[in-house]
Amino acid sequence: MTRESWHTRLGFILAAVGSAVGLGNVWRFPWMTAENGGSAFLVVYLGIVLLVGVPGLLAEFVIGRRSQRNPAGALFRLSSGSKSWGAVGLFGVVTAIVLLSFYSVVGGWILRYFLASFSGAYFGSPGAYFESINFGLQAVGFHVGFLALTALVVVGGVRDGIEKATKVMMPAIVVLLVALAGWAVTRQGAGAGLSFYLDFDAAYLRANFFDVLGAAAGQALFTLSLGVGTMITYASYLGDDNNLAYDGSAIAVLNTGVGVLAGFVVFPLLFATFGELTGPAASGGGPGALFVSLAGAFSQVPLGQPLAILFFGVIVLAALSSSISMLEIPVAYLVDEHGVSRRTATLSLAGLVLITGSANALNPALFGFVAGTLVDLMLTAGLAGFLVFVGWVLGADALSEYSTGAGSRVRSLGPAWLWSVRTVLPLFLVATLAVNLLALAG
Ligand code: PFF
Ligand code: NA
To answer: Which sequence ranges are marked TM in the entry (predicted)?
Structure first.
C-alpha cells in the first residue's frame, strides 16, 4: 500500500497552519499576554517565535520529509535503528495523547459556548455559568462530542479528511477574525485596550524578565505545535518539491498573525466593555478567565448574541484543526509501525483519549497540572530532543534535506540554521526546562 500524501502544496501549508492556529492563539495567547505585562510579553514572544520557532519548525520538517514516517518511526529509522532515538520519537507520540486529553476538554467548553450562544444561556451570569459547566459530567459529555468530531476528520485520512477540512476552515477563521477585530477596535473605549496591548513597557520587562521569558517560550512552542512531532508527521506526507524554509516561514507568519489578530479582538473588547482587564482575567484566574470575561462582554454589547455565535464558531473551527493534528500523530504511528488500518487506529486512540480526557474533565487539579505545567515541560523537552537529533545525528543529511526544493538564497542560510540547531537552540531549551523545573520544585 502506498503511503498517503498531500494533494497540493497549499493543502500542506493550510493543514500545518490549521494545526498551529488554535486555542493557543485565541485562548492561551491573550491569557498569557494579560498575565505577563501585555506588550512586554508580546515583544519577547515575537522574538522567540522568530529565533527559536522558525528554526525549530524547519528541524521537524526535515525529520518528517526525510523519513516519511511518524515521529517514533522517523527517529528510529534515521538513526539506523537506535532504540534510544526511537524512544525520543515515541515520547512525542505520548505527548500528543497527553495534549489531546486536555485540549479536547477545552474544545468541549468552546463547543458548549458556541451552542449556548444561540439561546444566550450564559448571558445572565457569565461567572456562575462557567462554574456550572467547566468540570463534571457535562464537561465529559462535551469533551466526548468534540473528540468525536476530531476523530471523524482523522478517519477520512490525509487528503479527504485533514486537507479538505482545513482548506475550508482556515480562510473562514481569518475572514471572521478580521471582521470581529474591525468591530472591536472601533468600539468606544477600545483605545485603552490597544495601548495595553501595544505600548511597550520596558520597566515591566526589566523587573520580570525571567518570568516573561519562560512564559513566552512555552507559548511560542505551544502555538507553533512544536516539540510533539505534529510537524514531523505533517511533513512526512510531503514530496521533494516543497521549499521547507519558505513554507515554515509562511506558517509562522500566518500563525502569529492570527494570534495578534485575536489580541485585537479580545483586548479592545474587554477594555471597551469594562474599562480595564476585569475579574478573573486581571487576576490570572486560570483557564476560565477569558470565557467569563468575553461572555460578559458579549452580554453587554448591542448585537452581542450573533457576534458571540460568530466568535465561538471561529474558535471551534480553530480548535478542531489543531486537535486533528494531535490525533494524527499516534494514528500515523499505529498505521506506519504496526500495520493497523487508519480506521481502527483512529477509533482505538479516540477511545483511549475518551478515558484520559474524562479524567481531566472530572478533576480540576489534574486538568490544571496537565494544561498549565506538564504540557510545557513535555514540549520543551521534546523539541530539545528533536533539535539534538537533527544537529548531531542527521548533520550533513539534514542540510541536504533542508536544501532540497530550496532556492539559492534559502540554501545559503542552511549552515547558520544547522549551527543554531546544534548549539544555542538546544541550550536555550534546556535552560528553559531547568528554570521551569526549579519553579515547580520551589
Ligand atoms: N498550536 C496549537 C494551538 O495553538 O492551539 C496547539 C497544538 C497543536 C500544540 C498541536 C501542539 C500540537 F502538536
Ligand atoms: Na497557535
So the answer is: 12-30, 42-63, 84-115, 135-156, 168-186, 216-238, 250-271, 307-335, 347-371, 377-395, 416-439
